[in-house]
Design brief:
259 residues, alpha/beta, seven-stranded parallel sheet, 8 helices, 43% helix, binds D-gluconic acid
């Protein structure tokens, strides 16, 4: 094996597809991967938001493009993957990050709300991972990274049963795919964010009591900044993590280890 160097973290020459990348954690991960050499393809539903996110990366001198589709639309996702392969010939990195949130007391939930959350977080990323695994198998190498959460696999709080259940299942899917794809040169890992100050959480960030609770509950003593997720994503996508497989990397300021 070559001696370790900063090059081990380079993603030069790699093509990365990230879902839910027009804002928040997805955008942060996409920007970071582009800054270390990847050509990043940002997925989202909002074409204007995607254009702005892609523009910020290309104006900084890095390589990016948009792929607008709803991750729950399997035909659209498959068409986007086919288009990427037709133009780039490869997909080296897939980050399944897109997600939505729904916060209500249990008895106010409609079953359709629960289904919508699971479809977006879990089912769509199962299908996307299956569909990007095909070119990765042909390449003999690939990186699949899911954005799971502390919410579900490790801890839970009231009013978010759909999100917790979906992320718990995505945590399990990480291991299921890691053991199946590992022998074929594809690693599958996850990043489990704690509480980050993203648009998804804007209502919580704006709530001083909730922010006080988070600050007290998290050993680092604050909300995470979206930029603080990037290093974990670059690491798991890089050659530096070539022997990391089936791992869930917690980026939570220590929240899940605190009493
Ligand atoms: C909530 C939040 C959390 C965070 C994060 C925690 O309402 O509790 O949305 O779920 O988004 O995922 O890891």
């Amino acid at each position: 094996m070559a001696p370790f160097s900063l090059a081990s973290f380079s993603l030069a020459g790699r093509v990365a597809l990230l879902t839910g990348a027009s804002r928040g954690l997805g955008r942060s991960m996409a920007e970071a991967m582009a800054r270390v050499g990847a050509h990043v393809i940002l997925n989202g539903r909002d074409e204007a938001a995607l254009a702005e996110a892609v523009g910020a990366i290309t104006e900084a001198g890095f390589s990016a493009e948009a792929a607008a589709f709803d991750v729950t639309d399997e035909a659209a996702a498959q068409a986007a993957i086919a288009d990427i392969l037709a133009r780039h010939g490869r997909i080296d990195i897939f980050v399944g990050n897109a997600g939505i949130q729904h916060r209500k007391p249990l008895v106010e939930w409609e079953t359709a709300d629960f289904t919508r959350i699971l479809t977006t977080h879990l089912t769509s990323h199962f299908a996307l991972a299956r569909d990007v695994a095909r070119p990765m198998l042909a390449q003999g190498k690939g990186r699949i990274i899911f954005t799971t959460s502390i919410m579900g696999p490790r801890v839970a709080r009231p009013t978010v049963p759909g999100y917790a259940a979906a992320k718990g299942a995505l945590d399990a899917l990480t291991r299921a795919l890691a053991v199946e794809l590992g022998p074929k040169g594809i690693t599958v890992n996850a990043i489990a964010p704690g509480f980050f100050g993203t648009e998804l959480n804007s209502a919580l960030v704006a709530n001083p009591e909730f922010t006080a609770w988070i600050s007290g509950r998290t050993p680092v003593g604050r909300w995470g900044d979206p930029g603080e997720i990037a290093g974990a994503a670059v690491f798991l996508a890089s050659d530096a993590a070539s022997y990391v497989n089936g791992h869930v990397l917690y980026v939570d300021g220590g929240l899940t280890v605190a009493m």
